[in-house]
Specification:
Length: 460
């Protein structure tokens, strides 16, 4: 006969269910023991059913996530999500939709890296507004995500070091003077993330340009490069057949000009030597866009940019051209020095501008130029010694040039309640978006260091 004790061990019923079997036997005898066994068996069946239901629920959730990703079919939903990511910036985008940042897997779109699972989750919500974004916990970030992105022609890339968003500035592994056998090598190294176009960038910023032969408009003079924008050329003759447009990477170079953000420059060796047989590519380093404007080529409007080599972070194109012509090494002798400098995160200022649509937080002015709206990012607590302010969104304002000059000149200050003061007199309230996360401690610091300046301006 199966006793209550054996039944309990075999079915793993909690001890509390059978611990009183001896007392039950004493009171009710044999029938009491049978009742205990029946109750134990009943509880086991119930527990098993609950467990089975839980397992079936997990299977159902997994199945729903697979079906949900298969229901993401609208490419415009993907495009709208990508556009919003560019507009808001990574941190604000993820915060708005309550999504977790990717660590390893990213979707690569025009050289920009976007958190892969949040991209799909938010796009799903845009296609199915009544359901909202998917929970990223419901689907895997590897092969399942790769298949979903592939349907829209988007590549899933792995970044072991967590390299985020678009990569501006220097590439640690590739110092100026690095030589690549072709553009694919430069692409794989991250120097110029396109194998065809001369500009790697978007409307909100350009990361790199490549000078190739066949473009007679591009000129090199010492540490200066004159570069024409993309578009409007006949692919066979190279002649201009249409006006260029201030869009995409062309507009991105203007954004770099406004932000002072440097551009990586890759050049084909034949551009420097005038020898068609020289097909390797040389990374010159970082250049800043010092000016831009419109010109005319073959009767059509073209965009003309002037770039200057950043001292210490680039090679001088004119010197390299002369060295190559003489058959010397690409990289001239360089002296190792230790330099302490503030490394700017230009994406922070861009995020603040997008957050306020380039509208001044103090006077509400929105300037519109031929290249689009213009505003400036103003750090509240200054960067570098002795202030050591952080280069983060909580320490930056979106201001018009006038208010920026007054703010940096310590005429404008902001009190803890958001009141804007001009030489101590209230003139309005600071506009602060909920997603900004502004740190008012930095404003208090700026008000403190501005007090002496404001007092001096009031002296006769």
């Amino acid at each position: 006969m199966l006793t209550a004790g054996k039944f309990a061990r075999r079915k793993k019923i909690p001890t509390i269910c059978v611990s009183h079997s001896v007392n039950v036997t004493r009171i009710f005898g044999y029938f009491g023991l049978q009742i205990v066994g029946i109750l134990a068996k009943t509880q086991t069946i119930c527990s098993t059913e609950v467990s089975d239901r839980g397992g079936r629920k997990r299977d159902r959730d997994w199945g729903n996530s697979v079906r949900a990703l298969s229901e993401l079919t609208d490419s415009s939903a993907i495009s709208r999500t990508i556009d919003e990511f560019r507009l808001l910036g990574r941190d604000i985008f993820l915060s708005k939709y309550g999504q977790q940042p990717s660590v390893r897997y990213f979707a690569e779109v025009d050289g920009m890296l976007i958190d892969s699972k949040p991209l799909l989750a938010v796009a799903y919500g845009k296609q199915h507004p009544s359901r909202g974004p998917l929970s990223i916990r419901l689907f895997a970030g590897g092969e399942e995500t790769r298949r979903a992105l592939k349907r829209f022609g988007i590549e899933l890339v792995t970044r072991g070091g967590g390299r985020l968003g678009v990569l501006y500035g220097e590439i640690t592994e590739c110092p100026p003077g690095t030589v690549f056998k072709d553009r694919r090598e430069a692409y794989d190294a991250g120097v110029h993330r396109t194998t065809q176009a001369g500009i790697a960038g978007q409307a909100d910023g350009t990361q790199s340009i490549c000078l190739s032969d066949g473009y007679s408009d591009d000129e090199i003079q010492g540490d200066l490069i004159t570069y024409t924008g993309f578009g409007g050329r006949d692919a066979n003759t190279g002649r201009h057949v249409a006006d260029q447009k201030l869009e995409k990477g062309n507009l991105g170079l203007v954004e770099n000009f406004k932000l002072g953000r440097p551009v990586r420059v890759l050049v084909k060796e034949s551009v420097l030597t005038d020898k068609k047989a020289d097909n390797e590519y040389i990374y010159l380093g970082l250049f800043t866009v010092t000016s831009w404007g419109w010109g005319t080529r073959d009767g059509w409007k073209v965009l003309i940019y002037q770039l200057r080599a950043v001292a210490g972070d680039s090679l001088i194109p004119g010197d390299i051209a002369m060295a190559l012509t003489r058959g010397e090494d690409v990289t001239p002798p360089r002296r190792n020095t230790n330099v302490n400098r503030v490394v700017r995160n230009y994406g922070v200022a861009a995020s603040a501008k997008r957050l306020y649509d380039n509208t001044c937080q103090i006077c509400r002015t929105r300037l519109v130029t031929a290249a689009g709206p213009y505003s400036e990012g103003a750090h509240i607590r200054p960067l570098g010694i002795p202030h050591n302010g952080p280069d983060t969104l909580e320490n930056i304002l979106c201001l018009c040039p006038n208010c920026h000059a007054l703010f940096d000149g310590h005429a404008l200050t902001i009190s803890p309640d958001g009141t804007v003061l001009n030489l101590g007199k209230p003139v309005g309230k600071l506009n602060v978006a909920r997603a900004h996360g502004l740190n008012f401690e930095h404003l208090a610091y700026q008000e403190q260091i501005s007090a002496a300046s404001s007092e001096r301006t009031r002296l006769p």
